[in-house]
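User: Can you help me understand a structure? I only have the sequence.
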Amino acid sequence: IWKSFISSPANFMRLRQIKRAADSYNLEAKYEEHQSKITLVAGRQDQLTTVAFLSDLVQRHPGISFRILEECGHAVPIEKPKELADILLEEAVHLANA
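Assistant: Let's start by predicting it. Here is the structure, written out as C-alpha cells:
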C-alpha cells in the first residue's frame, strides 16, 4: 500500500508539503505559550511516548501538569478509560474555576 501511495506524484508532493509544514511548526513555543493549560497523561509502561520523554518535556516547561497511570501502556483511553475520564473532568473543573 505504501509503495503504491508514494509512487503517485500527487501523493508524493502532498507528503513533501506535510513534511515542510511539520518542520516549520514550533511545538516548543506552543508548549511554552500554553503550558498552564496542558496536562499530559501517560501510561507507566508506554514504550512509544515514554515517561522519561514526557518528564523531560515537563522539566523544560514546568507549568505543564503530568499524570502517570500505573499498569498502563500507550492506549490510555482503551486501557484506563475511567481514570482518564476522571482526570479530564478534574482538569475541566480546574480550568472552569481559573
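Now, to help you interpret it: The radius of gyration is 18 Å. The chain has a mean pLDDT of 90. Let me know which part you'd like to focus on.
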